[in-house]
Amino acid sequence: MSKIIILTLIFGVFFSQALELKNLKIYTFEQYVRDFNKSYELDSEEYLLRKSIFEKKLAEIIDFNDSPNQTSKKGVNQFTDQTQTELEEKNLGYSKNMNKIRPFRNLSFKSIEVVEQQLRDLPTNVDWRQKGVTSPAKDQRHCGSCWAQASTATIEAHAAINSGQLKVVSTQQLVSCVPNIYLCGGTGGCQDAISELAFTYLQLYGLTSEFKYPYQSYFSGITRNCTYDQSVTTPEVTLDGYVKLQANDYNALLYAVATIGPLAVAVDGAKWHSYKSGIYNGCDYSQNIDIHHVVVLEGYGIDPELGDYWLIRNSWGTSFGENGFFRLARESKVTCCIDYSPLDGQACSGQNIPTKVCGQQFCL
To answer: What dotted CATH number matches 2-15+88-358?
Structure first.
């Protein structure tokens, strides 16, 4: 059994190689239905609705990819026939209908003080996948479990760093068993929560393996009752503690992911669904944002042609993006935005003060 200390920061369908080579300008909805095993009855009301959504998005994807000077590319995937509301409710996992109860008590966390010499000594590129401590990207599917997916991926990585063994641990245990009485980031389970709750639970109960407690909310989107019994099942991983970094601290984030390991981070992922490759820099700083998706920061780097980036592990399966990963523009001098709905993804009941968030990692 591994004991670890980690840090956190508030901040599917198989996509065939053949589809990669197809010209999207002649790609049809009928081909899309076959490629992604969609079960729509031909010419039914839903079929026609999905076709309309698909064709509109496909045109937008083609137009984006034809535009000059783009540092990323969009593509067709399992999300191309879904509405924005469906994408946010099913794939980001937050609830707009949280009831107000007594305020959550603020906890005291440590931070990392980073000096210039430490930053100068950091490597140019960090990718924890190359260290053998990262499992393949998982797929939350219809359950709003991004917070649990990111938490287990972070736990797996730090357990591997500390023990030398990569263990795949149970996401379902977190989804079904972590209480969320203060409605932090959502109502809990498949209606979202925050990584701090997952890490606090781990300190008390530990986490068993994916094999012993498999992910069952994939298709149903139902949280399910907790069936974990610590007296019967010995946990694979336990947690000594965790640290929450200072929000919007670029240097602390860079130093922590380079020297300690992957981090759970909260982002606004509402416009990620069409991402295929490259470095995303599509933040519109004139618009308000909504932090409501949790991912894993796996590293950073410099692309000689496209620039600096953060390396993000998502929870939408390996057909999303670059084999389940996402490269996001990294800016040492950032522009900041305001999240006017912090209860949607990062705050607890009673903490409804608008939050300042900075950089492409937030303004998406």
So the answer is: 3.90.70.10
In the chain, domain spans = 2-15+88-358
Q: Report how far residue 199's alpha carbon sits from residue 197's, in angstroms, rounded to the nearest whole number.
A: 5
The residue from 143, 146, 190, 363 that is catalytic is 146
Q: Which residues contact 36 (CB under 8 A, 6 or more apart)?
A: 13, 77, 78
The answer to whether residue 37 is catalytic is no
List the one residue out of 71, 4, 3 whose CA is nearest residue 262: 4
Answer whether 176's CB lies under 8 Å from 227's CB: yes
Residue 150's pLDDT is what?
A: 96
Report the phi/psi class of residue 83: left, alpha or beta, with left for phi > 0 and alpha for psi in -120 to 50.
beta
Q: Which of 293, 337, 348, 358 is catalytic?
A: 293
Task: Sort 301 into a burial class: Cβ within 10 Å, 0-12 / 13-18 / 19+.
Answer: middle
Question: Has 358 been annotated as catalytic?
Answer: no
Q: DSSP assignment of 63-84, as one string? A: HHHHSTT-SEEE---TTTTS-H
Asked if 265 and 7 touch (Cβ cutoff 8 Å), the reply is no
Whether 146 is catalytic is yes
Percentage of the chain beyond pLDDT 70 is: 82
Distance, in Å, from the CA atom of 336 to the CA atom of 124, rounded to the nearest integer, reads 25
Q: Which of 273, 314, 337, 363 is catalytic?
A: 314
Q: Closest Cα to residue 258, out of 70, 77, 128?
A: 128
| pTM to 2 decimal places | 0.80
Residue type, 252: A
Task: Calculate mean pLDDT across residues 303-315.
Answer: 95
